[in-house]
Design brief:
The protein has 318 residues and is of the alpha/beta class. It has a single domain, classed as TIM Barrel. It is 40% helix and 17% strand. The protein contains 11 helices and 11 strands. A hairpin with a 5-residue loop joins strand 3 and strand 4. Helix 4 crosses helix 5 and helix 10 packs parallel to helix 11. It starts with a helix and ends with a helix.
Length: 318
């Protein structure tokens, strides 16, 4: 089933969440421990993120600079398949990014996903690797998300990279994209960011999931800007509860977002991370209830590998 078809049910707000593949050495049991406590709340979908390998360049004993991979995460395709066949009911939405893929490698991943019966994908450009300041596409890769969406739409029409490829099949992918209520950090202004988002919708994307935000007014304003630009697809708010005092500095730095003064003040006054976690739960419950009252199609939660706080939130909201 396509996620966008579920989102057409305007009488209900769905519960949705995202998981993070563990580092190399982790197991599917780690993933199941995150997911199992949340299944009681009938999630509409489970998203599975994708991350580029992290590499560094080091000089070897001969004085030659070598490229060395220092961090990996297991394959999103394999994890998505394991989740799909263990839980069955939630729609599994693997992420697919531009970074680290050539167009042929993207095609291979899409063939695997299609074979496994996964027709919903969230596509993103992806961030630069941790040790790089700027994003650089692979040779014969996609520089922007719009190009990746067009490749997927071509496969839906039966058009592959190699025109002479035998036994081609039309795929049936439905694509979602990311939106940024506080602007993508590389966009010069919000107007241009919305313009580029509209290009992704025109290329074939059918819904939007937002970056996290802590002030609902940011989401309301973002939706209004999108509608004024002619973007009519569902816009799912993505939110994350704060968990530690470090979030006060880390989240604005990493995600280019603001924390409201009221929330920041409460975090500063907290005696320890246990109190911060409770503050985050209460704030997110309030956010969620206000968003549901506003009429959002779903509320999407970023777990970042932890689900106890999300479970407590869902108990109060869904």
């Amino acid at each position: 089933m396509k996620l966008v078809d579920k989102l057409k049910d305007t009488k209900k707000t769905y519960f949705s969440f995202e998981i993070l593949p563990p580092m190399k050495g982790g197991s599917m049991e780690d993933i199941y421990r995150v997911i199992d406590p949340l299944m009681d709340f009938d999630p509409m979908n489970i998203n599975v993120t994708y991350h580029q390998q992290e590499v560094v360049y080091k000089q070897n004993k001969q004085g030659i600079i070598e490229r060395k991979t220092i961090r990996k995460r297991p394959g999103t395709v394999a994890i998505s398949a394991a989740i799909k066949y263990r839980y069955q009911k939630p729609i599994v939405v693997p992420h697919l990014i531009c970074g680290g893929f050539t167009k042929d490698e993207t095609e291979d991943a899409l063939i695997d996903l299609n074979f496994l019966g996964m027709t919903n994908i969230l596509v993103l450009r992806g961030d630069p690797p941790a040790n790089n300041k700027y994003f650089r596409a692979e040779e014969n890769g996609h520089e922007h998300t719009t190009g990746l969406i067009r490749q997927i739409m071509h496969m839906n029409q039966g058009r592959y990279c190699d025109e002479d490829l035998y036994n081609i099949r039309k795929t049936n992918f439905s694509v979602g994209v990311a939106g940024y209520p506080e602007k993508h950090n590389e966009a010069p202004n919000m107007k241009s960011d919305i313009k580029y988002l509209k290009q992704k919708i025109d290329a074939g994307a059918e819904y939007i999931v937002t970056q996290m935000f802590f002030d609902n007014q940011k989401y309301y304003d973002f939706v209004k800007l999108c509608r004024n630009e002619g973007i009519k697809v569902p816009i799912i708010p993505g939110i994350k509860p704060v968990r530690t005092k470090r979030d006060l500095e880390l989240l604005p730095q990493v995600f280019n977002i603001d924390l409201p003064e009221e929330l920041a003040s409460e975090i500063v006054k907290a005696k320890n991370n246990k109190e911060v976690n409770e503050i985050g739960i209460e704030w997110t419950i309030k956010q969620s209830k206000e968003l549901i009252k506003f009429g959002v199609p779903a509320v999407h939660y970023y777990t970042i590998g932890k689900s106890n706080n999300i479970k407590n939130i869902a108990k109060s909201v869904f």
